[in-house]
Amino acid sequence: MSEITRRLPAEWEPHQATLLAFPHNGNDWPGKYEVIKWAFIELIRKVAEFERVLLIVKNDEQQQKVTTMLEQAHANTKQVKFIQQNTNRSWMRDSGPIVVQRSDGKREALQFRFNGWAKYPNHRLDWQVPSAVAKSLKFPVTEVCYQGRPVVLEGGAIEVNGRGTMITTEECLLDQKTQVRNPDFTKEDYAAIFKEYLGVSNVIWLGDGIEGDDTHGHVDDICRFVNPTTVVACVEPNKKDVNHRRLARNLERLKSARLEDGSKLNVVEMPMPGRLDFEDLRLP
């Protein structure tokens, strides 16, 4: 019997549903929580026009409140499937399961360890999210370990083209002093993990992320695949901005990088939006 392999599909590939978690931690939205709830309702309403929404809610009480809000917004509630699971916060891209396709035709939910971006202490409820989602979808769930250790990783830290190439940053995964994910892990360690669990054979390492990103270097802020051979990369035209040099260095790496087949990337530059601060903090 041949060994079963895994592959993380690109985001533009066909999928069955969008996973969201309805916010209930007002501390994540200082001064904006009431507005944010209705923003989520509108997002759910829009997505439900085209596909199913898997919506995590804290408990039955929140489910009833959200259902009422969706009905008030004239959303197609038949397209919304609720999953009751208490969480610390609502960032499903980072704490939710990473679902891969297997060579035997089945799908599998991967449970990487979420540690609050190595910044926030309240994250243990989010550990249960991948298994709760997998149970609802009847997918097998696998905890990702390497050399006997659970592997810390967020979905926003990686970007794939679905054919074997991944982009990530050294700031997020290799920094051993600030917001440390996996102490002492090397590029070679990550390459082994990404190959076994995500089907990645080629890793492109960028340097730093942008100022103000409290995740400490997530790649999804600065660079995204839009097809298997093309990336959109952020650039900062203002030479006095700290992000100018960071993004320029990343752009150089992208232009010299190779895809899994040895060909060059098609790199499309996109200017950063203007600076925005909130309570003396720069927003990413």
Secondary structure layout:
Blueprint: E1 6-7, E2 17-21, H1 33-48, E3 52-57, H2 60-72, E4 80-84, H3 92-95, E5 98-102, E6 107-111, H4 129-137, E7 141-143, E8 145-146, E9 149-150, E10 159-160, E11 165-169, H5 170-174, H6 187-198, E12 202-206, E13 223-227, E14 230-235, H7 242-256, E15 266-271, E16 277-278, E17 281-282
Structure description:
With 284 residues, the chain is α/β, with parallel strands linked by helices. It has a domain at 157-284: L-arginine/glycine Amidinotransferase, Chain A (5-stranded Propeller), CATH 3.75.10.10. Helix content is 26%, strand content 24%. β13 (223-227) and β14 (230-235) form a beta hairpin. The chain starts with 5 loop residues before the first strand and ends with a strand.
Using the alpha-carbon principal axes, give the shape. globular
Beta-strand residue fraction: 15-25%
The poorly predicted ranges are: none
Any idea what the CATH architecture of the domain at 157-284 is? 5-stranded Propeller
- Average pLDDT: 96
How many helices in DSSP terms? Answer: 7
